[in-house]
Amino acid sequence: MGNEVVKKDPTSIDGFAGWNDDTEGGDRPEGGSGIIQGTLIKFTNEGTWVTRDGEELPADLELAAVNVWRVVQKWTPDQGPDGPPIILGPEQPFPDIEKMNEEAPREEWGEDPSGNPRGPYQGQHVLHLLDLQTMDKFSYPTATTGGKIAIRELRDKLVWMRRLKRTDNVYPVITLSNKFMNTRFGGRLRPHFEIKRWVQLGGEGGEVEALPAPTPTPQQQLDQFAKPANKPVPQTDLPLTEVKEPTLKEDLNDEIPDFDEPATAKPKTANEPRKAPAPRPTARRDLGKKSSPTKTAARSTTRKRLTNMDAG
User: Which residues contact 154 (CB under 8 A, 6 or more apart)?
Assistant: First the structure.
């Protein structure tokens, strides 16, 4: 290279970060960056999950669902891929595959597993999975009704969780399972992904548990506690404190004087017995103590007469 200076991406700390083994001008990506990444897995008619080589996967294997692709693939009569697949973009609907097959030459047709004629074009969902312990990748391609139902259910739950967490960096960790499904040919098992937990992926921190519930904004907090003025308060929200009627002292806001004792009397304690009040004078008692003016004058005259008789 001589004295030529090679510029390095400042965000790449080594050759792993900037890895690219695609060939310029190549039609298909290589190195595991294509539609099928890692180990291809299949769902059997017996309701089990196996690899391409027939090795059964453990039921407790936890895998993170990291991506899903929707593709249209053209197949040869011997069921080999015929050219690169058509990868659909976000929000892009599937094309009319039935029309595409009707317009295809009959010599391009093949047979389905039941021996019936099948057109060369097929719509597929491809789910990409990642083992968070070993970093092994798995791919589950499916064109069956049961497989599409399983992926659609997983996608719907993912969308709601991302809305709840208010972030797109949330992924489900699942186990490979099955579920019963009714069909026009009778009941059978279909694929099912059992969600075990949610994680975040990204950055150098590796796996991070999903964020907690979002914190409400100040306005949302005010709206939560604000109540309309015309809305009656439920009885369960009122304090159940017993209310007593006011006493006479509290009603008059004054002390009630004790007319039977002088004002300077020592205040009584709560336990001190109260003395009985002195009897009030009555009219009959007053007659015995007081004399009328006529009786008083008669008594004086009698005393003078007795005095004069003694002197004579």
Answer: 65, 127, 172, 174, 193, 195
